[in-house]
Amino acid sequence: MSSKVLRVTAALTVTACLAALTACTTTGAATSNTAASSAPLKIGMVVPLTGGLAALGQGSKDAAELMVAQLNAAGGVNGQDIELTIVDDKTDVTEGVKQFNQLAADPSYSAMLGSSYTQAATAEGATAESAKIPMIALSPVSAFVDGSNPYAFTGPATPDVYAKALVDYWKSEDITTVAIGFSADLFGQDGSDATKKYAEEAGIEVVLDESHDVFATDFTPLVTKVVAAKPEAFALWSAGPPAVIITAQLEGKGIPIYGTGAIASSLFIGPAGTAAEGVLAATTASMATTSLPAGDYRDQVVALNDAWMTAHQGDPAPEFAYGGAAAVQLLAEAARKAGSTDRESLRNALASLEVVTVAGEYSFADDRHMGLTEENLAIMTVENGAWVPTQYSLDLFAAAK
What's 390's DSSP letter? Predict the structure, then answer.
């Protein structure tokens, strides 16, 4: 966690930020463009509300709605309310592209939030470019990172960033062998490739690299190979039910499991039960909530988590909730900076936006459309049925003060 994230110069007062649950703390000079927009900030959101990744999409949806409500209660953006339209992509690429196309074709929409399903969000990028509408993917789309698609940005940390964080932790633990299990999709393949790259650089041997079907329900062949490989760590690049099932099938095998933000939720812990105890994951540091150092960033995180828990029977906010809320913050801050909700103005503002959100710090540029960096992550573990920061991350937080 960089000191830049934890000690920021507020462009908004902390009181105002907390009242709006935005705390969009812009680094550097405050923008001078305060011209009121002539139209509301209308955002289309295409996420999986049914199908295998419904939990991810529902969490992003609920948090985005919460952030929109809070922003509107505080006066909206440039004197106008934010309007959010949400549709279900059914965890299906074709359906996602169809729904995205329909919303993007409506000129009243200023921006889009792409799917929590990486395959779908990646495919939606082509429409964002052709329709010249800025989009923020709610999944870690590696293809958007370099800015070659000028209209597509990725919100969460990419597999490359997660993998680097995991390998750095393994080095601190003197781990020398690792097995990789990954879903046969873009997220899983990118995760596997990045893990192998950073493991090789660190001198860590990859003793197994095995894919699995995204929507399978039994993973005995994978589990058998993992156990036979006897790794000191097992990197699980999977989400949704497969991650739960694999974890349950590995229970009692003596193989430490390491995941990503894709499993950072009570919706993983609940069905995995006792098998979830001791699982570790690289997640947004926001998951550490009150363990974060005091400051504006923690204030944002605690405020969102408190509001989330109130609305969700005491369950803490999952990683994908912070991503959904942050995506709305990013678009709102871009509209403030541009003084407009025009698509091209929003895109230009996003491409130079430096802001601290509830999910961490973003610093976009024309050739850097990526979301969070490793400094915005933490290594969390499941302890007594809850995600808590490891001592490794607590030490990093302390060093960043």
Answer: -
Handedness of CA 204, 210, 214, 219 (dihedral sign): negative
Percentage above 70 pLDDT, the chain: 90
pTM, whole model, 2 decimals? 0.89
- pLDDT, mean over the chain: 91
Q: Where in the chain is the domain with CATH 3.40.50.2300?
A: 3-157+289-375, 159-288+378-400
> Nearest Cα to 283, choosing from 299, 303, 296, 269?
269
CA pair distance 354, 348, nearest whole angstrom: 13
Residue ranges of the alpha helices (H) in 277-356?
Answer: 296-311, 319-338, 343-350
- Report the CATH number of the 159-288+378-400 domain: 3.40.50.2300
DSSP state of 11: S
Sign, CA torsion 335/18/399/197: negative
What CATH topology corresponds to 3-157+289-375? Rossmann fold (3.40.50)
- Within 10 angstroms of residue 189's Cβ, the number of other Cβ atoms is 17
Tens digit of each residue's pLDDT (9 = 90 or more) over 294-324 = 999 999 999 999 999 999 999 999 999 999 9
What are the tens digits of pLDDT across the range 133-157? 999 999 999 999 999 999 999 999 9
**How many residues appear in the chain?**
401
Residue 112's DSSP bridge partners are 44, 135
**DSSP 8-state assignment for residue 316:** P
